[in-house]
Design brief:
- The structure holds two protein chains of two kinds.
- Chain A is of the alpha/beta class.
- Chain A has twelve helices and 13 strands.
- In chain A, the strands form three sheets. In chain A, strands 2-1-3-4-8-7-13-9 form an eight-stranded mixed β-sheet, sandwiched between helices.
- In chain A, helix 1 crosses helix 7 and helix 3 runs parallel beside helix 5.
- The longest helix of chain A has 15 residues.
- Helix content of chain B is 38%, strand content 19%.
- By secondary structure, chain B is α/β, with parallel strands linked by helices.
- Chain B is globular and about 85 Å long.
- Classes of the chains: A alpha/beta, B alpha/beta.
- At the A-B interface, strand 2, helix 3, helix 5, helix 10 and helix 11 of A face strand 9, helix 7, strand 11, helix 9 and helix 11 of B.
- Strand 2 of chain A pairs parallel with strand 17 of chain B, so a sheet runs across the interface.
Chain lengths: 350, 618
Amino acid sequence: MTYLKPHFRNPALPSNALGYTRRDYEGAVSTLCAGCGHDSISAAIVQACFELDLPPHRLAKLSGIGCSSKTPTYFLGASHGFNSVHGRMPSVLTGANLANRDLVYLGVSGDGDSASIGLGQFVHAMRRGVNMLYIVENNGVYGLTKGQFSATADKGSKSKKGAVNPDDPIDLVSLALQMGATFVGRGFSGDKAQLVPLIKAALRHRGVAFLDVLSPCVTFNNHPGSTKSYDYVREHNAVFNRPDVVPHREAITADSAPGELVTVTLHDGSVVRLRPVAGDHDVHDRIAAMNHLAERQAEGEIVTGLLYVDPDAGDLHDRLNTVDTPLNRLNDAELCPGAATLARVNAALR
Amino acid sequence: MPQPLERPTMDKTNDFVVKFANVNGSGSASANQLFAKAVLRMGVPVASRNIFPSNIQGLPTWYEVRVSEAGHRGRRGGVDLMVAMNPQTWDRDVAEMEPGGYLLYDSTKPLPPSRFRDDVTVIGVPLTALCNAEYADPRQRQLFKNILYVGVLSALLDMDVAEIERLLGEQFKGKEKLIAANVHALHLGRDHALETLQCPIGLRVKRSDAVGDRIFVDGNNAAALGCVYGGATVAAWYPITPSTSVAEAFMKHCKAFRTDPDTGKARCAIVQTEDELAAIGMVIGAAWNGARAFTATSGPGISLMQEFLGLAYFAEIPAVIIDVQRGGPSTGMPTRTQQSDLLLAAYASHGDTKHVLLFPEDPRECFDFAATALDLADRLQTPVFVMTDLDIGMNDWLCEPFVWDDSRRMDRGKVMTAEELEAGADFGRYKDVDGDGIPWRTYPGTHPTKGAYFTRGTSRDPYARYTEEGSVYVDNMQRLLRKFATAAQLVPAAVPRPARQPTRVGVIHYGSTAPAMQEALGMLDGQGLHVDALRVRAFPFGDEVIDFVERHDTVFVVEQNRDAQLRTLLVNEGAVDPAKLVPVLHYDGTPITARFIAGDIAGKLSALTIVPLRKALP
């Protein structure tokens, strides 16, 4: 069932530059398990969009199948949403993006959806540079089918029933870096202070932005022996940096000592200020990012933060050299060559 | 010295079949096409068919040209003049010839008399020797050998060589050296024939004016052009024979017709995807977001698209799929033709699904139906298949010129605008407000607070809210059936062709069978067998199709597949008596012939009329 929230507007609620309150970015009541990491991510998406002053109807949210893919119902109720087929959100989103380049595209997926059944579509979306934010809500298990390992489950990690995962994991962050994603980061659903700015920066990025968000499954993968539990992720979280996004219209005021912050100016003029925590690789250096990731992973750590960004990246429309007008708005005169041209085509076929 | 011709020979003008037997990758295709076009330029209709292997170089390939003043576009069967350029297939090529026919071969190496037939006239031309004497470069020797035999044919068939020269001039426009070299090779062959052979032979091309304003084009090119005219802006595709050239032609046409003159930017997006799943996914995403989108594929691609097709059916998203059918199952015969994807497409996906299919008969209808499919998909908010095949798709067909009415506008179907939403229109994404089963939709981004909805493959109520309530699910599935009934009213109607006199025997056919069927009807008529014909152009069937079956005692259903797939659809969906429907099936991968159809129907009709001798009942 879809549970709708009552329409009650508290006049005291703060509104953003567009006059929307945070409530305008919310969706239906979640039907996920209480304490599910995915609900925290939904809340982070709501907050990020509210703070970025995004008109809700100018964002399209798409997903595949699974617990994570159910979440687009639970945020941005005024946005069009599309819950597609298992592992195939990337192609549907790519097509939607081709049709209208003016909307903001948010793809929500899970580890089974993206790393198992949908790995092919995942890597091809990364290499095509589709202008989107691709979030994987990563909990290492299949929730809706009750606790089977997914392809991101670590080798040797234990399932709730005690089975040990024999296979090597797929690290989607490493893959995204390798496949040409131009904004790559990792967050943790239990660290909203880091996650919200990551989402804000990723939404402002032009090109493909990928965020892997560790999001523990409280029902099937939050036990000792799991490497995707709240406790395990907290203990092994190697925070690389903490971002802070300043929209382009706001003056940047230094609130920390110069030299400590790394600033990245995005395509639209927004500035991402990164506060380094552990590690010092240049965030514009893809290979350094891959090295840092590999080194920390070898130590059993989970690197979070914004790991790589190319602020000047183009997108699929640049590569295809499509017109500025969204394709879905082109009219008959712009699309149909007409009878006179057809007569010339006919003549050339005789 | 002229060779005397002394065997039984045929004597035919503008009505014969030439077949070229070549080796794949030898450059023969363009020479053979040059020959076919030269006949056309002399005002004589041709039907040409490329019969090729799944291979780039070295395997046998054939090109059949039917010269037919009467305008028969189907295969007749049999060969009157064999241009035998491939030693690998010599025996079967010679065996395929009609008695009294002519065999042109490369006589550079002598062949023993046992390799020939007594009842055909053998014409030997030392093509290799002539080329080797003229050209030093091995590639030139190979390529010009093909032009050389076209020159020989021009002499043997009494063709106007100036037409061939003009065609070469058009083909190599701007490359004067190439024109001169080709014309030289042409005359090398022609002069040799005129000097050493008795020209013309009993087969002749005589200038006529039977072509009119018809065009010579392949169906894939035509379908791609139809997608341009129909307003498609997104094409997502994965290479697969025999559909690849649809996408390639779309690229070519978009470059010509969809480039913004001011900015040089493209008014389209064409993506070669990682597989067919992604191709249909992108089409669905684009169409959901208000662009006209299509993909082109063949049977195996449709198999991969099954899950997505169910989603598009149930979530009610337009999609156009051009299925250029080939021989299946599995990889089957990828370079041969069939009509064997009907059931696959009609009921694609899991659960209860039914899809709209269109059956073009030739490239002209590929053009028309591609544009129509884009309108229908938007109007019906559902996948629409254009069921063409390799025979139409990859061969040049002589057909009526393309026509476009400049007053025609894209039918975008029921799309609610921001103004309508603002004015307070009740928007229920899956609500049947007009009684035709077709709901209204909105494009993402339309209105700040109204009209947003959630698209999903799971069941939902008329306002797109998730529900697993059985009765709500059933209502929705019933509405989809009403929508399918609406589709039957909107698709192209079947085309009847009554017999000369009233008859209780009918024949139903579709797609590329049409030209052979037309000719077969003439043959049957000549034998006093009167048969009403109906060319079905779409599924779901209109009332006229079911009426036709009901008005006849026996209805032959002619198809190019093993399992009588259209017949199955007629039985399933038309609730007609299966006993009435007699299958006539041709599925060896070659295009169906008039002789086959006429022979099979005549045979079955005589079997129906034979009354076995039995004891008189007391």
